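Data deposition worksheet. Section B asks for the primary sequence of the deposited chain exactly as it was used as input, without tags or linkers unless they were present during the calculation. Section C holds the resulting structure in token form. Section D is free text for depositor observations; keep each observation to a single sentence. Incomplete worksheets are returned to the depositor.
Section A, Depositor: J.P.
Section B:
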Amino acid sequence: MTLVLTGGRVVTSLDPVELVDADVTIDGGRIVAVGWGDPDPEGSPAAVQIDVAGCLVIPGNVCAHHHLYSALARGMPYSLEPPRNFVEILRRIWWRLDRALDEETIRASALVGGAAALLAGTTTVIDHHASPGAIDGSLDIVADALGSLGVRSVLCYEVTDRDGPPRAAEGVRENERFLRTRRPLARGHVGAHASFTMSDETLSACVELADRTGTGLHIHVAEDAADQTDAFARFGRSVVRRLADAGALTERALLAHCIHLDGADAELIRDAGASVAHNPTSNMNNSVGHAVVDRLGPHVALGTDGIGGDLFAESKAAYFRARDDDVDRSIGWPLGLLAEGARLAGRVFGEPDLGRIAPGAPADLVVLDYLPPTPLSADNLAGHWLFGFDASAVRDVVVAGEPVVRDRRLTRVDRDELTADAVRQGARLWERLEAVPEHDFQPVGG
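Section C:
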């Protein structure tokens, strides 16, 4: 099917910002032309046209670090003593929730989170999954749920020793099994929780699998000071140095957070060419500190760490949090992070033009119903992005050439039915959660 978006203003690139008035012609899942022309040349199949006059067409956003399994936690009841620090947040909330998950709630979480991402203009989700009571096949459940919506994804299972060596080994096997599968819209990483919940043997198993499959390790790094304290207490070195010594720090690695680092750690990340997922909203919510991302190299992208899939909101949070420390922070800085997220996903998919609206690029794009109250140009797009755009402007979403949101409605699934099932599964998950005690894992020195 040939699809033509007619009469719009098109942001062909976020870094550098490029803006043109043009039609966008799509065929075979790819952009074939950006410019004015006849969408139905003689002898070709009739094109499906979408009128985007008065709208802005942008590349689809990429969430560089998500936890879709948290999607049913909104409003979740809580009966334990309030957590006083990050480790207690994990032990009393998230490590209870993940143990309560089963196949039905994994699927519902992925559907809810994936649908929210699409409706907010996020076309690719890089996810970090955990379900210790339902490991085998869990990544298939997530991939199939996201695929049914039309979301592009990069998935991994969170390997950890906090639930014992057998489950750690099962997590490694789940990553390996999923990496052998092939879906049009899904790829894999090797997932790992964090240094402070991993033995040397488990970390080595993850690194060996990543090397053997040509993929990268997706791992939380120094999100909290406890991660560094544990690394020095158990291994006599920093988290980043431990990863480097284990062979995990490569250009394929994806390091989430990277807050409690020193200059030597940052230099190791830069020299390795590793990617970093910056999650400012989550960092503030957990009160773990603020990543000094400027020293981490060029491969810094934006993630949400499970707090939704709205990258418009996350890019604003990133900017205003950074601006609070540095009044000289460039207004275009968040657009560079978003563009790097697309480049990161493109490297995993072998699609270097992902994130661009240009001939040959994968057709992942978003139509914003945005009427600017002031002139809009390439020079001031960042100002409109931060002070004008939000997810409510998302009208249409195209992934791999297929419209998966039209007129603010999902095209592949009934959202009302999806939500009704999520309410049922959420209630059941919360009931299961009540029987799960606080996790007893504690980092060394924490």
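Section D:
Residues 2-60+354-410 form a domain with the Urease, subunit C; domain 1 fold (CATH 2.30.40.10).
The radius of gyration is 21 Å.
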